[in-house]
Amino acid sequence: MLLISSMDKMWISFVSMGCMFLAMVFMFFVKTKFSNKLWKLIFGIIAYILLFVGFISMLYIIFNPTKA
Q: Which residues cross the membrane (predicted)?
């Protein structure tokens, strides 16, 4: 198991929250602003990938111990 410092966990959590925020913004644009189906598909796929990356990195932060 890879032990990381508390500061590294903090930065990873900021990145995962940023990914989730970007996913929310992209899904807002997909649902309300875009009318072209190709753009909806592209931004929808990007949003779900960002949401998945944010979720997995947050799970990594929650369930991994830190260096003492």
A: 12-30, 42-63
